[in-house]
Amino acid sequence: MITVATAECFTLGKIGTTIHKIASGYEECKNHRYYNIINGNVKIISSSFIPSIEGAEKLLNLGAPLPKCDYEYSYSKAYTEKNDLKVAHILAKGLKNSLNCNIAIATTAGVGRGGICIISDKNEYLFTTDIEGDLISKKNIIQRQKNGIDKTINKFVEILKKEYFL
To answer: Which family does it belong to?
Structure first.
């Protein structure tokens, strides 16, 4: 069984929840296009929505502080796209190290296309959504979120097929 954990910000834990529902055989997911790949082969060991620096540092035992935010925004992380990519990588690495899972997925997005990182047992994948968004002005954040969820799940399944031969 392939173990998976997520630390999500702009995707609000929906990647982990979706994978969990498919893996667990929820009735509403039995017609999902990836059901036959995920169900019976994958289990979510942790799925987290972590919007704050404080939460990420404490929960993931990162060993070093995350970068200071590029933008002032309530209590949530808000970075440029370049730093979103760095932070997503740090979060995924912390998650993988803390939980010793096969696949760690992390997402974060402030201003830009956001940052998504998937770390498997063999490789690290760092990418963005296809949608420019701005957490501060709330521009395109729902569209960016939906695109990020879909793109990440598609990449996750691609990794399962390529690296785990499913």
So the answer is: Belongs to the UPF0254 family.
The enclosing domain of 145 has a CATH number of 3.90.950.20
Locate 73 and state its tokens. Answer: 């925004």
Average confidence (pLDDT) over 95-120: 98
Q: What does the buried/exposed string (b/e) look like for 116-155 if buried means 16 or more CB atoms within 10 Å of the residue's CB?
A: bbbbbeeeebebbbebebbbeeeebbeebbebbbebbbee
Question: How far apart, in whole angstroms, are the C-alpha atoms of residue 57 and residue 62?
Answer: 6
DSSP letters spanning 18-87: HHHHHHHT-GGGTT-TTHHHHTTTEEEEEEEE--SHHHHHHHHT-SSPPPPPSS--TTS---BHHHHHHH
CA 141 from chain centre, in angstroms, equals 16
pLDDT in tens, 114-151: 999 999 999 999 999 999 999 999 999 999 999 999 99
Q: Kind and range of the H or E element at 117? A: strand 115-119
- How many domains does the chain fold into? 1
Six-digit token string for 44: 């979510």
Q: Which helix (H) or strand (E) holds 116?
A: strand 115-119
Answering whether pTM is above 0.70, one says yes
Parent domain of 123: 2-164
